[in-house]
Fold these 3 entries.
Entry 1:
Amino acid sequence: MDGPTNVSDVTKDPHQGNDLATPGALLEENSIVPSFARSFPRNGALDDLVRAFASGNYRKVHDQAPELASRATDPAVRDAARVLLERLQPDPLAKIILLAAVMLLAVMATWWITEARSHGGAGPHVRGGVSESTKALVES
């Protein structure tokens, strides 16, 4: 039998024996710290912002992190607040990909418009008419 041999193996604490669960990785029960924030110093205001970040309350982090970074006396707390703010910024690669997609769409739309005009409009298949070559083929 390859599975666990007793019940204690199945009900084991998921954080026990896990290299990612370092001391201080849990701020409180049911509040897990993101991996980049595990080395942050312990500070009440900073812990509150880390909890907000982990729960998805980015507005709170965006509003309160600059204030914490400006008034904190500990340089490690200031740096941690700045790191939280940086994590809210969009990925530069995503910006480039979005810009490339918009440019590609503009080029394709321009090409489609110029091709339609060079062929006398939208063409018979769009207007509901029959092209001359189709008429000749049907008549023969």
Entry 2:
Amino acid sequence: MMKKSNKRKKWLIPVCIVVVILIIVIGIIRYNNNKPIKKENQYNVFVRQYSEVYEPDWELEYVGILSETDIQYAGVKVHFQNITDSWNLDNMAKISYILAPKIRSYMGEEYQSYVLSFVFEGYAGRSFAFRYYDGDKKMISLESMGGYGITLPKIIEAFPDMTSISTDGSIAISFDDLKAIEQLESLQDWWCFSEIMPEKWKEYIWSIFPDCEIRDLSNYWEIEKVPW
């Protein structure tokens, strides 16, 4: 009698284990099936339909909207992540120029006054941004871009209609490089973060663009209104 009882226990234990596993699996499947589907941002979906414009070098991370009471701080950010570690300025310009009017048109009148930023981000905090703000102004913004062969003349060649430049000192610009601004039709602002522009440079810029506003934000940038 004891032998029969022992045999029964031997097969009963694995059967119980299998039953418990099945219950857990069925529970997980039911939970996943009943879990509410998280809707993706409609602007992400819209931009992704133009994936052939930015792939294979870039991957769309998100399209974010920052709404603020002060309209000068409101913005739409189209954020791309670098996949190939390639920083082709012509490629980034093409992406920005093609997508900007499409996104503006899709978003409608409510967001027309918002800053529209195309941010290209890579490793180690390297970031390059092309921004549309304040009506028809177009800004190039550079952060931690040293060592990638990106120079001011190359930037101006890729974005010849820019009207504003923002630098943080990460790009080494020589006085000869500065002369590339002569190719621009208009230069309305130069925002200097973490750096002080030499007086010689200011005089040169003003000799070409007398109305250009040079903003030294190296010490008090936090109290300035910036277009992002």
Entry 3:
Amino acid sequence: MKRPEHHHTHWFVGVAAVLFVLAGVIAVCSAVRTHADEWGLTAPSAASASASKKAAPAATTDKPALAWTDFSTRRPLVYTALGDSLAVGYFAMAKDKGYVPELARTITAQQQVPVKVHNFSENGGSINTVAFPQLAAIYATKPDLVTIEFGTNESVYDDPPHSATPARFQKNLTRLIKDLQAHTDARIVLLTTWNQPRSATYDARVQTVAKHYGLRVANLEPIWADAQQNGALSTKGAASFLGYGDGFHPSDAGHALIAKTVYQQVKPLFTP
């Protein structure tokens, strides 16, 4: 009777050994499946490879251009203006007659787009005295459109800290554009200077920077150069919302012409 028991004992031991080995194999296979990708033991399936190929463009494609047609009353176009007394509105008869609000109205009328305006401009201002000290606040507006109108005061060499040599002005303008592009998604339009002896020199610097960064430029020179015919300059002594005309700053007609000129550079931005 003991011999058969001994036989069964060996049988059970053998079965247990086999089960132990199988358990080990299963554990190893499970570990391999779990860490296969990590250990580089598998190749992606055709389906996953296809999915990866389709997903790749989303990760590498540049940020899509701003969809200007998506603006609405709930998401108005944010227009941030940077400049000197011209952008403030000297010497229009009323505050809403300056070129900045006039440009905003034109965009709304022509593109059926509501516009929210932030104006950081100051009388006598330059990039160094107006733009750089307010950069954080400018970024905070999250602008869609920025107009930059500087260089007129920089061209007056004996007026520090507003003045800047042509080379320094170009460096400041370059830095301003780089800062705006690094911290906002704004489209940027540059304006040339207004009616100064050195306007041509500074306007050339504006054009050089614009070409380098692929920006559009609103050329104001034809407006003030033809002021006798188009009435672009304010009349000396004429009342305005900020004081009296000086024969140098724009009149209502001048601001309207500036807004029209700037809009010609803004308009193409609405076409992808």
